[in-house]
Amino acid sequence: MNKTLITILSIFGIIGAILGLLFSFLPISNLAIFPAVLGLILGLIAYLSAKKQKLNFSFARIVVLLALLAIIISMGKQLFTEDEVKADTEFIQKEKQSEVDAVKELEELDDELDELE
Amino acid sequence: MFKKVSFIAVLFIVFAFNTSSTLVENQHIKSGEKLTFIASFNISGVMTDIAEVKMETSTVKTKSRELLRLKCTASTYSSWDKFFKVRDLYESYVDIETLLPVLYKRNIEEGTYKKELKYLFKRKSKIAISTLNKKGYKDYKTEVPITDTTLDIVSAIYNARILDYENFSVGKRVIKKLIVDSEVQTITIEYLGKETVSMVNYGKKECYKLSIGFGGSEIENIKGGKYIYITADDDRLPALIEANIPVGRVQIRLSNYTK
Questions:
Q1: Residue B176 CB coordination number (10 Å)
Q2: Residues A80, A98: one domain?
Q3: Which of A10, B88, B150, B157 could lock A46 by a disulfide, CB 3.0 to 4.6 Å apart?
Q4: What's the domain range around A96?
């Protein structure tokens, strides 16, 4: 594998790794695995090829590390965090007030119907 | 996209459970029922949970009558709140026997978008008074012509659960009208028979499978369509709702219930 191909693989790898990292910090962190794994595979190929040919492999190594980091964060979030709805007192209050208002409106409607009859 | 997904999630749970054209007496829905759902979207086979949807029933007393309050809320999970917070409240106050609505209220907060909508059903006058409050509209009232069986979207959910599916033949279609966004709209349901569904915490259950069409024109089976599964037992629980969207598939799964 020539140097240009190794560089191209590393560039695609770093794009995948960065996308994976970005996704891993978002609520859609479970989707981070796709670009991160792609980044890891490309980074590993570039790293091993560069090492074999005794070329500079530091860029490829960064790709591998970033991709691994994205995978670890993504999997960690899957394993150790749970989806929950935050207690929202304002929303609960709104629900209660809505019922109180509704009863008033229904009673007004009842009165209106009584008058019609 | 998130707004679209949350909108579809709420609308689906709502639109999907339409009602039959004939009035059915309620034997399944009682006060005190609490249903909790997980709303998710599926991209490339990976499921991402977005929001929690709750449906609750309670009794409400006015001076002269007793009604059933059907409350439906949709709240995004805390991880989504920083990006797109949804706190939607839908309510329908219905007759206990027929589940026909008297008052419908919708109060939504989706990101920075807020809207309040209310329909007061005046059956004798055959109109519903719609009152809208949102940016640019303050107590904007319109009259919507209704029939004796016109529903709102929340009461439609519950009405669908009380239909007599055991006596439906496969392929039977039901068309019904309900008010959506201050307009009377038509929805078509096709009964597709029974299917077994794996529920989140309750194992496998036999369900009635329904296909939903909008506008009454056709059943949309293209690209997987839109399906609702209601448990084929006395509880008539909405076990699963599925719909295809351009970026994947939306699923609303029943995760917990108490009666």
A1: 21
A2: no
A3: A10
A4: 87-117
Residues A80, A30 within the same domain: yes
Please give the pLDDT value at position B44.
Answer: 73
Please name which of B98, B106, B183, B187 lies closest in space to residue B146, comparing C-alpha atoms.
B183
Residues in chain B: 259
| Overall number of domains in chain A | 2
Q: Is residue A112 located within the same domain as residue A71?
A: no
The answer to whether residues A93 and A77 belong to one domain is no
Distance CA(B127)–CA(B104), nearest Å, equals 13
Q: What is the pLDDT of residue B221?
A: 45
A95 and B102: CB-CB below 8 Å? no
Asked if A69 and A112 sit in the same domain, the reply is no
What number of H helices and E strands is found in chain A?
A: 4, 0
Instruction: Please give the average pLDDT of every successive group of 10 residues along chain B, which has 259 residues.
Output: 51 45 69 94 84 95 91 94 93 92 94 93 91 91 92 87 88 86 84 92 92 60 72 92 83 92
Please check whether residues A14 and A33 belong to one and the same domain: yes
* Same domain membership, residue A26 and residue A77: yes
Structure tokens at B166: 């055991």
Question: Would you call B102 and A106 a contact, using CB atoms and an 8 Å cutoff?
Answer: yes
One domain, residues A13 and A55: yes
SS3 category, A40: helix
A92 interfacial to chain B (CB closer than 8 Å):
no
Which ipTM did the prediction report?
0.79
Beta strand pairing call for B137-145 and B151-152: unpaired
pTM of the complete model:
0.82
Instruction: Tell me, yes or no, if A105 comes closer than 8 A to chain B by beta carbon.
Output: yes
What's the farthest any 2 CA atoms get from each other in chain B?
A: 54
Task: Say if the Cβ atoms of B124 and A99 lie within 8 Å.
Answer: no
Q: What is the distance between the alpha carbons of residues B21 and B139, in angstroms, rounded to a whole number?
A: 32
